[in-house]
């Protein structure tokens, strides 16, 4: 019996993707927790940064939105949206920014939909929309994507392309006029996917302990290469201790 | 000289004077912080209709205005209030029912659009949107754009970099300026002339404020011009941009106002519950907005105990260890 939840696993796996010196763009929810975990566990010199303009937030308490006053406490600077997105679009600072995103749908090239299900003009389901996600996905050096591992979310064809991944393959971003890097990892409640250096297609990199390759594939709407899959390292006692007691003691995001 | 004197107004008067049916309007703040909620509730009470609302991620204010039926068209980047409503629920319902027309942009694009309005240029370039459906899918049709003089003919325009490869950029996306009839922002401090000071993140409030023909500033504290001019480095908006100054303590409640109070988690959660079905939402509208005279009465209904619980710690700017579950 494992002694951690899948949300804890996801936060820890994402935190391990973050390195000292990275400037982390955080969205709402688990991405904030991942950044807090990275800062407290493995990358104390990463910079937590919000599209609202907060730069190098201390985060004594977990914020519940990117405009939460908790992101404003003991920052290097409290600016605004123009400054934050400028930092990401900037040809020098943008290279250091790692974006963490989530979405309602993802395709095999890591393109994301967070706008609508169904026809755009008469949507079956309306979501929040891009917010800063399109900007982040367009500008920064790499993105980490959180997804729930469900067939309806891993789709062959997005209903709406909100945020660009690798678009239609190796030259997709270049042809569209985008610079910057694309998605580097998709972290789900079952597995970690990465993108092939040549084809830019998603492949299964790691399955969480106790989860089979077959069950990962069964919960996706398209086939992925599973030949490179290994078992993911479970969270260590120290990682869990910091995540639970330091990052989210009220379990506002961990649930 | 009309922008120089006599600007100190009651909220009812400011809204009645500057927010008219069909107005193009933008609202300051971001998701659950520093939304000018007192003004939003007053707009709802005065029954304004057919508003053309511009927003980046102004969650709570947008959802309340949409929910109350004030909005006809919405240009927006994000309709959500963080954990309390990852997608604003009345916004979602209104779009799905076809009750409002929506045009989607990204947050940076909306920011640049306000900035272009503030700067007096017709558009600004960016590198957002390339390869995405933000460019290809238009919420406002070509026909509507041609017949409506307040809308640009194109949603946005992709063009080759006119300076060749200068800036290592092959293509740019041009986004059209926004100029509003009225913008409303809530700030921590202002004087009677309209000099205004925002503490904490300014979001895109300054750009929004300056893209407006008329600007209403609601403030937590009304202070003397002498106090504002003693520390000008902290001031964000000069008096001549402002048409109305309204002193409304807790004017952002139930959203937060950095340094003064936190968002009210109980209210936002209750709001999310009310929004889920129409009869419950009608009850909310009646009990919390329409049958309430003004913001003071609203705050009395909320109660001093709740307001005490969310009072900001002077050091952190928020309510430490507030129960937010």
From TrEMBL, chain A:
* Ranges in a coiled coil: none
Keywords in alphabetical order, please. Transferase
Tell me any Pfam family this protein matches: CoA_trans
| Taxonomy, superkingdom | Bacteria
Q: Which GO terms describe its molecular function?
A: CoA-transferase activity
Q: Which Gene3D superfamilies match?
A: Glutaconate Coenzyme A-transferase
Q: Which residues cross the membrane?
A: none
What this protein is called in its record is CoA-transferase subunit beta
Originating species = Desulfosarcina ovata subsp. ovata
Q: What is the lineage of its organism?
A: Bacteria, Pseudomonadati, Thermodesulfobacteriota, Desulfobacteria, Desulfobacterales
UniProtKB/TrEMBL annotation, chain B:
Tell me the keywords, alphabetical order.
Transferase
Name the coiled-coil region(s). none
Q: Name one Pfam family in it.
A: CoA_trans
Entry GO MF terms: CoA-transferase activity
The record ties this protein, via InterPro entries, to: CoA_trans_fam_I (IPR004165), NagB/RpiA_transferase-like (IPR037171)
The record's listing under SUPFAM superfamilies reads: NagB/RpiA/CoA transferase-like
Please give the name of this protein: Glutaconate CoA-transferase subunit A
Organism, as annotated: Desulfosarcina ovata subsp. ovata
């Amino acid at each position: 019996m494992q002694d951690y939840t899948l949300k804890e696993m996801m936060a820890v796996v994402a935190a391990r993707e973050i390195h000292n010196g990275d400037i982390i763009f955080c969205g709402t929810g688990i991405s904030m927790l991942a950044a807090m975990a990275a800062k407290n566990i493995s990358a104390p010199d990463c910079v937590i940064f919000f599209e609202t303009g907060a730069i190098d937030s201390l985060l004594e308490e977990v914020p519940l939105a990117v405009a939460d006053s908790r992101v404003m406490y003991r920052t290097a600077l409290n600016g605004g949206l123009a400054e934050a997105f400028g930092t990401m679009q900037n040809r020098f600072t943008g290279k250091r920014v790692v974006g963490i995103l989530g979405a309602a749908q993802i395709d095999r090239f890591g393109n994301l939909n967070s706008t609508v299900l169904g026809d755009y003009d008469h949507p079956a389901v309306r979501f929040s929309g891009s917010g800063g996600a399109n900007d982040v996905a367009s500008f920064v050096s790499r993105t980490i994507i959180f997804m729930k591992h469900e067939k309806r979310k891993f789709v062959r064809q997005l209903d709406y392309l909100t945020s660009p991944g690798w678009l239609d393959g190796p030259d997709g971003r270049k042809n569209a006029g985008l610079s910057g890097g694309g998605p580097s990892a998709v972290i789900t409640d079952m597995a970690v996917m990465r993108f092939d250096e040549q084809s830019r297609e998603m492949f299964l990199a790691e399955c969480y302990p106790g989860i089979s390759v077959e069950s990962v594939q069964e919960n996706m709407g398209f086939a992925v290469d599973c030949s490179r899959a290994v078992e993911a390292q479970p969270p260590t006692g120290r990682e869990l201790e910091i995540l639970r007691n330091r990052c989210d003691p009220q379990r506002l995001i961990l649930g | 000289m009309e922008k120089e004197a006599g600007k100190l107004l009651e909220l009812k008067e400011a809204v009645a004077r500057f927010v008219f049916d069909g107005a193009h309007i933008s609202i300051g703040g971001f998701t659950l912080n520093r939304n000018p909620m007192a003004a939003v509730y007053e707009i709802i009470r005065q029954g304004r209709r057919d508003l053309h609302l511009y927003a980046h991620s102004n969650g709570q204010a947008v959802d309340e205005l949409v929910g109350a039926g004030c909005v006809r068209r919405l240009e927006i980047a994000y309709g959500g209030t963080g954990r309390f409503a990852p997608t604003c629920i009345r916004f979602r319902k209104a779009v799905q029912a076809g009750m409002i027309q929506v045009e989607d942009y990204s947050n940076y694009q909306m920011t640049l659009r306000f900035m272009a309005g503030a700067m007096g240029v017709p558009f600004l370039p960016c590198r957002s949107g390339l390869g995405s459906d933000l460019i290809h899918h238009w919420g406002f049709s070509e026909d509507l754009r041609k017949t409506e003089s307040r809308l640009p003919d194109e949603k946005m325009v992709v063009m080759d970099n006119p300076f060749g490869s200068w800036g290592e950029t092959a293509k740019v996306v041009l986004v059209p300026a926004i100029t509003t009839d009225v913008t409303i922002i809530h700030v921590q401090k202002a004087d009677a002339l309209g000099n205004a000071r925002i503490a904490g993140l300014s979001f895109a409030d300054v750009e929004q404020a300056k893209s407006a023909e008329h600007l209403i500033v609601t403030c937590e504290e009304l202070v003397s011009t002498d106090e504002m001019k003693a520390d000008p480095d902290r001031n964000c908006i000069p008096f001549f941009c402002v048409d109305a100054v309204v002193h409304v303590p807790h004017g952002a409640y139930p959203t937060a106002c950095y340094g003064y109070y936190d968002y009210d988690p109980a209210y936002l959660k209750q709001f999310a519950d009310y929004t889920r079905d129409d009869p419950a939402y009608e009850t909310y509208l009646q009990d919390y907005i329409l049958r309430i005279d003004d913001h003071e009465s609203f705050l009395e209904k909320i109660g001093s105990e709740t307001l005490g619980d969310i009072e900001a710690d002077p050091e952190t700017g928020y309510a430490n260890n507030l129960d937010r579950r």
